[in-house]
Sequence to fold (285 residues):
Amino acid sequence: MKHGKLRLSGVGELRIRGKARRVDAPKTCEILHRRGTWYASVTVEREPKRLHGERIGGLDWGVETFATLATPEGVERIENPRHLQRSLERIGAVQKRICRKEEEAKKASGKMKGFPLSNRLRKEYALLGRLHEKVTNQRQDFLHQTSAWLVATFAVLGLEQLNIRGMTALGGAYKRGLNRGIFDAAAGMFHQMLRYKAQEAGGWAMEADSRKLKPSQRCQLCGRLEKKPLSQRWHDCPCGASCSGDENAAKLLLSWVMKQIGGREPAKALREVRPASLPGNPALP
Ligand SMILES: [Zn+2]
Fold:
């Protein structure tokens, strides 16, 4: 199914680019047209169903490091993929060029709005559109793969409930306004994917109330609360705890989620803990 052919009744045989994630019996096919490119979206019927893993973990979501995972075995990091970062940098460069050319056009015409667009400027707009499209696809792919891997590895995963205020607290590149829209959309999409994939597998992706837990302020070791400026990425506490802020938040989410299942083995908790006895959580099956 790599770079194969698609036969559509009434249209004929078309060459297509891309590769199917899985080869199964096709059920439906949707044809989409976006920014001058045609897409075929094929749904397949598949078996077996998704399976969940055995581990337990706390996940903190960030900008510079995509995610920090705390498990009883230690801390792991999931980095943003290089190709996605490169595309984001290219978007930044094109946006800068567009700004400069727009300023020049405004000066030359003396109009703030409705200034004439040069061919070069038109080309830059088109390029920006194509780059955005590319980033959307690359990001979606990465989010699907990462959420699938997390669900296949973990039985129970604790993460921070998503809210806009929480996201501004992430600081760093986000605060500087770098591709803010892209970041917001990705956060929502990632949580949604984790939630439905965990549900498909019978695992749990549990979301902690950020306003109560305060992972950006609370020490994971002693529970002490301290307001930190957004620029402060390191967590130091009088109790002796010293680690990155991401690591602190991930460890805090791990102890939170362990408390939720009452210290049981994660896989055992899935069988024994009745969802109704857990705090109001949309992620529960
Ligand atoms: Zn402490």
About this structure: The CA atoms of residues 161 and 207 lie 5 Å apart. Residues 119-153 form the longest helix (35 residues).
